[in-house]
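Structure in, sequence out. Go:
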């Protein structure tokens, strides 16, 4: 298997924060409209009228800023003129309703279609990343190998580097154990194929558990010590973690629940995907 990935053609342009936030807000508003048409209430009941129009768009941008800039809810509320309680309530409600999860999945399918790929995958790339967390996060663990006290992201991505499943554990959970919920979610989505992993996922127990789910774990060494050597397309998951490092809230975790943390990870990938899709070159007739 080669190391190159063929992606859809997009208009050239340097990475621009403002274009990211604009494309993100448009994508979220379109998703909210789709959910409203399905009869899903995106705003809770209250004495005040729900946000709409330009104010709703400003609230979506504020939620994006909490992820990219790691801005506190109170601070971003003061800057936008929207009460921080309203902003956090929107974020919490949309997380419970699965707005970001739905949007992430839809954009991934849209991007794969633009790249000429089929919706069904034959392989995924799996890896984890330990990140420091604040004491307010609750349960934390110590990754002895990386000397990190905090949490660990377990992720499975497609060949373009976009996540099909994201799970959170304490940093002291071994990769071969923490990845099981990811494989279970992939199996529930109907995935049966290869999971490309590094040597930390070697072991008969994981291989047996994965085969029961219809997934074949292929573990290969990708370097020694701190030297990383690309093996096939395994490098794309490392690039995915590099993308996440651009979003400051994901460099040190402050979220008190795993659902909130996963939502911020999804916001980061939605931001990247929405901008890419907005820059797609039109297909010539």
């Amino acid at each position: 298997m080669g190391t190159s990935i063929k992606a859809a053609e997009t208009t050239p342009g340097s990475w621009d924060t403002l274009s990211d936030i604009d494309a993100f807000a448009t994508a979220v508003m379109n998703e909210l409209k789709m959910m409203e048409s399905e009869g899903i209430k995106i705003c809770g009941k209250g004495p005040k009228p729900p946000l709409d129009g330009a104010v709703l768009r400003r609230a979506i941008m504020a939620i994006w800023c909490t992820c990219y800039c790691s801005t506190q809810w109170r601070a971003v509320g003061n800057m936008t003129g929207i009460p921080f309680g309203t902003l956090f309530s929107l974020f919490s409600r949309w997380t419970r309703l699965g707005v970001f999860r739905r949007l992430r999945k839809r954009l991934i399918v849209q991007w794969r279609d633009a790249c000429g790929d089929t919706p069904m995958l034959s392989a995924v790339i799996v890896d984890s990343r330990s990140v420091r967390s604040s004491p307010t996060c609750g349960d934390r663990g110590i990754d002895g190998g990386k000397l990190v006290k905090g949490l660990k992201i377990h992720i499975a991505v497609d060949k373009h580097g976009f996540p099909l499943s994201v799970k959170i554990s304490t940093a002291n959970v071994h990769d071969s154990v923490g990845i099981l919920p990811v494989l279970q979610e992939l199996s529930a989505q109907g995935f049966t194929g290869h999971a490309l992993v590094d040597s930390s996922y070697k072991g008969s127990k994981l291989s047996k558990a994965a085969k029961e789910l219809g997934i074949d774990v292929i573990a290969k060494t990708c370097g020694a010590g701190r030297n990383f050597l690309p093996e096939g397309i395994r490098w794309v998951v490392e690039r995915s973690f590099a993308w996440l490092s651009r979003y400051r809230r994901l460099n040190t975790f402050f979220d008190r629940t795993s659902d909130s943390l996963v939502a911020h990870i999804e916001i980061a990938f939605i931001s990247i995907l929405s901008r890419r899709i907005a820059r797609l070159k039109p297909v010539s007739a």
